[in-house]
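Side project, low priority. Logging it here so it doesn't get lost.
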Amino acid sequence: MHSIFLRYLDETARQGSIRKAAAVLNVSSTAVNRKIIAVEEQLGVRLLSRTAEGVELTAAGRIVLEHCRRTLMEYRQVQLRLGDIRDLRAAHIGIATIDSVSMEFLPRVLDLFQQEHSATSFTINHCQPEEVMSAVAAGEADIGVSFLLDLHPDVRAVARRGAAIGIILRADHPLAERSSLSVHDIADYTLVRTTDARGRHSIIDQVVTDSMVQSQATLFTNSLPLARQMILAGRGIGLYTRLGFLSELESGSLRFVPLDAQQLNDLRIGVLISSKRPLEPASAVMCDMIADRLKRLNLG
């Protein structure tokens, strides 16, 4: 049914009169009457009972009016949401994320977002997974992207994706064609891994360190760009997710080989927001975009 009819029937029901409805709508009463009669003929039912005092809805008319008002309300809600999106120009979005996300994935999403909303400003901080969680819970960040370990009670994940930690190595490395590797398979090679995933609570330490030979050379660094250059130079093999090496994996210069460690293969990454506070319109659009792009990645 045409949107004009929706307004005509709604106002006629409110006024109890076609003439009064036409006056409110600033159209002729003939136009209102003709439109309603045309829809009655189309539906094959009478919507109005016309009397000398005015009009009353028939049973069919009440059903159609319910549809009209629901449709008009939904349309107004759409208009409000579109207005919010148009007003993103003055928005500021805070994002807390682990470093691998900010290497390539997040810049790609930011580029897409700013094509439509170029004046939106951002604060982006690198954090440890537990710090990402705390920042979102405390309202210091609108959105978090991190491994999903123990969720804070004030935080919820709006998107989840498997993000296994495995071995990153050059395409010409002797182990590059393997379908999977054990900790003992990598014992003779210098291992490049993050400084941040160390300590008694580290899943990597629980899986890898206990099985490594004591003499294995290891390069610990909190710099993912340095780790990437060392791996590309053939100075070691990395212990990371795919996230920080997207371009190299896409081009084929680096390979990802899963490690035979269930705990590392079961890791998941997610998009986090507060469970206590609603997102502002700009942050909601950005959150949806991050979630959508995350789902498209090959992180297995």
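Brief comment: The chain has a mean pLDDT of 87.
Revisit when time allows.
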